[in-house]
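TOKENISE THE FOLD
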Amino acid sequence: MINRRTFGKAIGMAAAAIPLTNVVGTAVSSTVPQRGTGTPTVPMVAPGTHTSFAKLKHVRAGLLNVGYAEAGPAHGPVVICLHGWPYDIHSFVDVAPLLAAQRYRVIVPYLRGHGETRFLSGRTFRNAQQSAIALDIIALMDALRIDKAVLAGFDWGSRTADIIAALWPERVKALVSVSGYLITNVEAQQTPLMPTAEHTWWYQYYFATERGRTAMNTPDLRHDLCRLVWDIVSPTWDFDDATYERTAAAFDNPDYAAIVIHNYRWRLGLATGERRYDALEKRLAARPVITVPTVTLDPERDPFTAPGDGSTYRNFFTGPYVHRTLLGIGHDLPQEAPTAFAQAVVDADHL
């Protein structure tokens, strides 16, 4: 999930907050420029209004055959929505039609190890370090002949979008990043946090053990563990069993356990990556700033949300910028608050 360093010492104080028109259930602040008066308003939709995507598409991209959903006009401006763990493309099942109605071409891919995305070769190392996942999305853009897109994500998806915006800003028109700046510094991860914060990361330490690996490779245990995470990190979201089961089907990917375990062990410095990504990881360890227009969103009821209304990561965003905290919303922000998420995409595109 999100970067443990968001619980650490604040990097700097945010600029003075300026109130904006509230989205429902949202506390909003920004630094200049504010949302333009000509920016379209996304109509309200109740979470859970949509339950499925149209037939999925597939494309060979880099190391993968990527399964993805698509909505909207084929020649519209592109938005790529990126999910996290333990979630899948259905986190955007209500967001995608909202953006499609605004004439965006919306691409929602399964990340490596999830759903219908598959490795092209059985010999490829099942690597889930951050730069490898980011390059998957660059390869997807290349395969679909997308030169530039708005990137919008949460959890693993935020980290992936942040990395692309930092290292390849020419490919990013604008950014929506839930929980702010999530680029991982593995060396910094070695510093213990306060006990309450460490407790929140219980599953990360579980995955560091062979017992945890076995659980993730055991379908019934994996199913129930991921459901427990949903319950804990979205305490106000009254989702039903069908909503969870729709996403849990994505966990049956044959590489799911290997990808999840490697991701969390790599972040703790307990698993190695691949040398081909060393140069990128060195650049990311330097904590590069993000210059593209950005809206950051904090879910107020997510136990991973750091205090300070975004101040702990504000200095990493040096371009046009808006920050919002969504009151009463948990970790799976786009599925819990699809209108607010879609509006953030539109607003970021108009900064």
